[in-house]
Design goal:
This protein is an alpha+beta fold. It contains six helices and 18 strands.
Length: 262
């Protein structure tokens, strides 16, 4: 028999929205080249690879081009699948050993809450090509260990960004978060995420970006619990809660595909 692989839409409660992730639960260790090839074949922003260990699962994430150190939506998809197919009992914590340390997830009704490290940004001067590639007026530029964070004046500007991906790819970072406050009663802030340098022009909903967005907006708005909307064409909702140097990310997930690698 082959290896079963799943596709899950994360940060949404309905199929064909949110961010699709591949989930591959392995019976034995596979080499890095095999995982990268599977991720390229799936051609999703990330595919997660899980292997059972003594306590929890080893978890790695690959884009079609590279391995990444932190990914929220594929972690959400992984936890969702472990509960859905019965590898974890209802109410049992999901425990993941990753390149970003120990990550956990718990069920809260229809939502899954993940415990992630906060990734604080610091104000910086925008490098050559960043602002030019976005083509919109910028209010603030910061950077964390992975990405640039660019604040703009309004939600309309966030929605209107049409990056020059060739130019943006020259910027030395995993990706760029573009964000603003919103006038919506449902959400506190909006964002989009662009990462052509790792093979993903626009990521539909980015959990790891909210590890930066959460403390960024929490400090400015003076509250620890916020709701973000990632305004891609698919769209998705991420609830965030700051707690010291950790960020709790909550989302929903829907399985849309089961297949077999032969």
């Amino acid at each position: 028999m082959g290896i079963t692989i799943y596709q899950v839409d994360s940060f949404t409660d309905k199929p064909f929205s949110g961010n699709p992730a591949g989930v591959c639960i392995m019976d034995e260790l596979q080499d890095d080249g095999w995982m990268q090839n599977v991720a390229r074949e799936m051609n999703l922003s990330e595919t997660a690879f899980l292997l059972k260990q003594a306590e929890g699962y080893n978890l790695r994430w690959f884009t079609p081009a590279v391995e990444v150190e932190l990914c929220g939506h594929a972690t959400l998809a992984s936890a969702h699948m472990l509960w859905e197919i019965g590898l974890l009992e209802t109410g049992e914590n999901a425990i993941f050993h990753t390149l970003s340390g120990l990550l956990t997830a718990i069920q809260r009704g229809k939502w899954i809450e993940m415990n992630f490290p906060a990734t604080y940004e610091k104000q910086t001067i925008a490098p050559s090509g960043l602002i030019e590639s976005l083509g919109v007026p910028v209010k603030y530029t910061g950077k964390n260990q992975f990405d640039y964070l660019v604040e703009v004046e309004s939600e309309d500007i966030v929605s209107s960004v049409k990056p020059d991906f060739g130019l943006l790819q020259s910027v030395a970072a995993r990706g760029v978060i573009v964000t603003s406050l919103t006038d919506s009663d449902e959400y506190d802030f909006v964002s989009r995420f662009f990462a052509p340098g790792v093979g993903v022009n626009e990521d539909p909903v980015t959990g790891s970006a909210h590890c930066c967005l959460s403390p960024f907006w929490s400090k400015r708005l003076g509250k620890d619990e916020l709701v973000g909307y990632q305004a891609s064409s698919r769209g998705g909702v991420v609830k965030v809660r700051c707690a010291g140097d950790r960020v709790f990310l909550s989302g929903q997930a829907v399985t849309v595909l089961r297949g077999e690698l032969v």
